[in-house]
Amino acid sequence: MGYQPNFFARTLSTPAQKQRSNLVAILVSDFSNPFQSYLFEVLSNTLQQHAKQPMLVNVKHEQDLDQAIMRLSGYQVDGVVAVAGSLAVEGFEQCLRLSLPLVTLGRADERGIISSVQTDNYQAGRLAAEHLLSLGLSKLGFVAGRNDGSASNERLLGFQHLITERLGEQALVLYANSYGYSAGFELAVRAIEAIRNLEGLFCASDALAMGVMDSCRNVSGIRVPEQLRIVGCDDVPQAAWQGYQLTTIAQPVGEIADTVMLKLNQIWQNQELAPTLTRLSPKLKVRRT
């Protein structure tokens, strides 16, 4: 007969009889980076497989965060997953005050107040450096993402530490101030001569790396990989496209989503003894570049 139960109506009960809404909000702060949409897709699928309904909230600025969280409390969401590496983790304490179960991605809470799931970005930087050094390269550079992006800063730290250990010097750092494709392309145009003097380049995201590659092809005439080796980070689906075949450091996205689901379940069942930080290992994915 086409009848569907009203899930919102089911939650209209007294506190003692409170039903779950099965809504889980996913807060995303930067869709200019295709990794965010890729991660949202995988998180959404995982939540749906566990009979949860994902709800996207796009938060562009830190000052919008409190209002967004207050709106979520009105929807009676069961939990919040914050994919917000460019936002200060302290801004999410409003969730805790409203008793909203919370897990953050992209930025760890070193104070141990909020549970977090992270790729080991320091290790990602070391993997990229190890790969480029194993090719016999010594003139290396790093393209940084957002200045306030903890992932970019941690990847740079791991990259620099291994290069300093092996070569006794540091890599050249170029600042794109974003994780997006256009930022990578424009940076490579501005820094043509600096990049021309390099043998290997590690980019803080795949989108940056693909922008740099297209700039090399269409503007500077630098041949990749013959003159310049490029390594990205994230392993978004576009990295495997034939036009790029980008060597990259892959984030364990499926494992991240599963771990988020595990943490939320522990919070819902009162099994989480204390907020925890989980760091998951990335892997090198060698392709053409």
TrEMBL record:
InterPro entries: LacI/GalR-like_sensor, Peripla_BP_I. Keywords: DNA-binding, Repressor, Transcription, Transcription regulation. Pfam families: Peripla_BP_3. Residues 129-289 form the Transcriptional regulator LacI/GalR-like sensor domain. Gene3D superfamilies: 3.40.50.2300. The keyword Repressor applies. This is Substrate-binding domain-containing protein. It comes from Motilimonas cestriensis. The lineage of its organism: Bacteria, Pseudomonadati, Pseudomonadota, Gammaproteobacteria, Alteromonadales.
